[in-house]
Structure formats: structure tokens, C-alpha cells
Hints:
Elements: E1 2-3, E2 40-44, E3 47-51, E4 57-58, E5 64-66, H1 69-77, E6 94-101, E7 104-112, E8 114-116, E9 122-123, E10 129-140, E11 149-159, E12 162-170, H2 178-184
Parallel strand pairs: 2-6
Antiparallel strand pairs: 1-4, 2-3, 5-8, 6-7, 7-9, 10-11, 11-12
Amino acid sequence: MILLQTPNHEGTGATWCSAMLGFTGINCLWGEIVTAQVHERIILEGEEKSMAFCPPIPTDHPRIISLDYDEVRKEMAAGRITSFIYSTACWRRYIGTWKLEDGRLYLTAIDGVYRVVGDEPILADWFTGVLRIPGGEMLHYVHMGFGSVFEFETHLKIENGIVVEERRIDNRKKDFGGRDLGWENLPGGENRFDGDDL
């Protein structure tokens, strides 16, 4: 099973809207899709950067464990998990840390309702898609998904965890419609870009 949805925690009083986003195959809390999402972390050439995309994580992987609501609350009280994972800016309830090394994508850590067990990174051989790594100044803020536009972005095309192509995009002279950007970058669709051939 590949996770790309928000876990339901009983007793939170949350209203679920799976029907609204049925075309993406995910569930979300009502109103969360109109909030800009916190980026994943990615380590490139030893430097941590932000990634405006969430590769799915395999929740049935033997080295990925799920924390129940009480465990998460205890970890938050101890300062080991930020309460930010329960904000509308983190619909997935976790922030993953990824690493590119020798042309391969690895999952190294998860902060939130899931954990990676052990110190060795996990080759992300389950993932095929395009990673979007923004750079430079923010040119246009979009209060939805990963729609904000930065001066530059690097698109890394991944096939079964292996980098097969890289493109650098210069956004400085482009016109952007905020509403369109938001809708194009809803959870589940944020790694589909013209020219990336996926």
C-alpha cells in the first residue's frame, strides 16, 4: 500500500471530504486544500533544500512504522515531533526527508505520524514521477497546495527510484494565474508538469 492520504484520528472533530477530491484518490480535511503546504526536505550534494512535492511512502514497508494518535501526542509533548504536523499546512501529517545520492532517491527520515526504523536510508524504488525543487526568491505566493512560484525550479524525473532526467526551469519572465496554479498543485497532482513526459 502506498500512502498519499491523511490518517483519520478519532476524537479530533475533523470533517472529512474524500468525495470532494475523489479524482486524486486521497482524503483530506475540509478546507485543507486551500492552504499552502509545507515542503518535504531533500538533501542534494550534502545541502538540505525544500521540495515542493511529496513522494508517496509505502506504509507496508517493514522499516516504516505508523504511530497511533496517542503515540504522536506523547512525541509532541516530548518535543520529538512538531505540532505543525496537525496544522492545515501539513495535510499529510508528516514531513519526509529524502536524499539524492549517486543518481538514486532515498527516504532517510519521516517526522510525524510515521517513522523510518534504522539508520540506513531506504531506496525509493516504489517511486516514479517528477520531483520539483524550487530555488531563488518566491515570485508568486499561492495559498493552496504547492502552487507558489519561485525564480527557478529543478525537475528531476525519477523511474523506480533512479534519476533519469533533470531540467532547470527559469520562471522569472513568466505570467502566472494564482488560482490555476493552486488547482494544478493539489495533493496528488503536484508533480505533473508540461515537458516532463509522465
